[in-house]
Amino acid sequence: MNVFARFFTGLLVLFSVVVNAADDQAAAQLRKQLDAMNTLQGDFVQTTYDKAGVEQERSSGNFMLMRPGKFYWKTLEPMPQLLVSNNKTIWLYDPDLETVNIREFTDDLRETPALLLSADIAQLRKNFSVARTAKDAVTEQYTLTPKVTDGMFQQLTLVFKSGQLAEFAIQDSLGQLTRCVLGNVQRNVALPEENFFFVPPEGVEILND
To answer: Rounded distance, CA 81 to CA 47, Å?
Structure first.
């Protein structure tokens, strides 16, 4: 599975989190923000930078998220691509290549930034250091750093504006930064379950990881 798929698979496990208790103020504040989201949908602009801060690529599209671990992430520009999960199976559809990559949603995929939305606060604090910064009266930034440094990322940043998830960024072990800015976000609206299941079009090549 490509870097894009691993990255957002990580995010969505993150979106599955149900946090139970906290004795750390930053983790407790993050819990409140995450607990307020059962579904989320909107648009995104995702930009990747190299370790020198030079832009490498940019993509945009729309998304839908639902707890636990369900997501629909559709890239429209510059090349179409669709990533879908029902928390059991992940489909990555590339219409230009006419391929569908299918992967089981296994435990190893939870060893990613998305863990933040799938685990309780005790597990979160066991695996990450959490820092909170109030940027202004309506903006909060949470920086999560893994306590074990041999994983796929070095740091994850979540930015909330007026209680709404507005952007996130992930820095990988090579210093590459991927930043995703969300727009037209709607929270806790009803989303049909069928949005999180994908039927491969006839004639496409099916690849199984």
So the answer is: 16
Tokens, residue 175: 């210093």
205 lies in some domain:
no
Return the half-sphere exposure (C-beta side, CA atoms, 13 A cut-off) of residue 61: 17
- Which domain does 156 fall in, by range? 3-197
Domain for residue 157, yes or no? yes
Block residue for tokens 């559709």:
74
Residue 203 lies in a domain: no
CATH number of the CATH domain containing 94: 2.50.20.10
What residues have CB less than 8 Å from 84, skipping those under 6 apart? 71, 72, 73, 90, 91, 93, 195, 196, 197, 198
pLDDT digits (tens, 9 = 90+) for 127-186: 678 888 887 888 999 888 877 766 667 888 889 998 888 998 888 878 888 888 999 999
Q: Report the alpha-carbon distance of residue 63 to residue 35 in Å, rounded.
A: 19
**Residue 120 tokens, joined:** 């309780």
Number of domains composing the chain: 1
**pTM for the whole structure:** 0.79
